Amino acid sequence: MRLISVMIIALLFYSCQNKSKGLDQPGLVDKVKDEEILRYLKEVEWPRAYREQDTVLLDRILGDDFQMVTNDGEWSNKRLQMERIKSGPTDNDSFKFEIKRLEVFDNGTAIVGGTGHIWTDSLYHIYQSSNILIKRDSLWKAVLSHVSGYKKVTVSR
Fold first, then answer.
1. CA distance 131 to 59
2. pLDDT at 63
3. What residues contact 144, with CB distance under 8 A and at least 6 apart?
4. How far is C-alpha 89 from the chain's CA centre?
5. Strands 139-154 and 62-69
6. DSSP code of residue 41
7. Are 31 and 104 in contact (CB under 8 A)?
8. Tens digit of pLDDT for each residue in 85-123?
9. 14-61: per-residue pLDDT in tens?
10. CA-based nearest residue to 34, from 101, 97, 104, 109
11. Residue 90: its pLDDT value, please?
12. Ramachandran category for residue 107: left, alpha or beta (phi over 0 → left; psi -120 to 50 → alpha)
């Protein structure tokens, strides 16, 4: 857990220092508008990409440098996530992402964290997720995701 925290802080620090081509200029961030865009991306578009096996949408969301740490501690990347959604649709009945932290920084970096709620038949799954996104050429791109605390709970409907 400490290693993941250090990696997230290092990536955030690096992105704060990075002024390379493709990153929007600091000071040009409209935080209110960007928060609305990020909320829609995380609550609507990202789940839709997985549910509908929409590789075009997922390609737009994930940066080419996207990395992910799964609940099992395994590393994944954009290519593996694209293969995952091509292999078959998700089997859940319902999904909702509850944002608990959404913060946009002046340097074009954002953090979106929260709780995923998944319902499948009589099972209710819950997990925690944190995401780092960077605004590149006016588009928000996810560059890092971390999932933890995945739990299954039996519920009656």
1. 16
2. 99
3. 7, 8, 11, 66, 67, 68, 131, 132
4. 18
5. parallel
6. I
7. yes
8. 999 888 888 999 999 999 999 999 999 999 999 998 888
9. 555 544 444 445 545 699 999 999 999 999 999 999 999 999 999 999
10. 104
11. 83
12. alpha
Could you give the 3-state DSSP secondary structure of residue 97?
A: strand
The gap between the terminal CA atoms of the chain, to the nearest Å, is 35
pLDDT surpasses 50 at 139? yes
With b for 16 or more beta-carbon neighbours within 10 A and e for fewer, the 9-39 pattern comes to eebbeebeeeeeeebbeeeebeeeebbebbe
- In this structure, what token pair is assigned to residue 62? 């994930």
> What span, in angstroms and rounded, lies between the C-alpha atoms of 47 and 70?
16
Instruction: Examine the pLDDT at 76 and tell me if it is beyond 50.
Output: yes
Look at 133 and 7; give whichever has higher pLDDT.
133
Question: What's the CA gap between 60 and 64, in Å, rounded?
Answer: 10
Q: Tell me the domains of the chain and their CATH numbers.
A: 30-154 (3.10.450.50)
- What is the rounded distance in angstroms from the CA atom of residue 9 to the CA atom of residue 12? 5
Contact between 149 and 128 (Cβ < 8 Å):
yes
The whole-number pLDDT of residue 22 equals 47
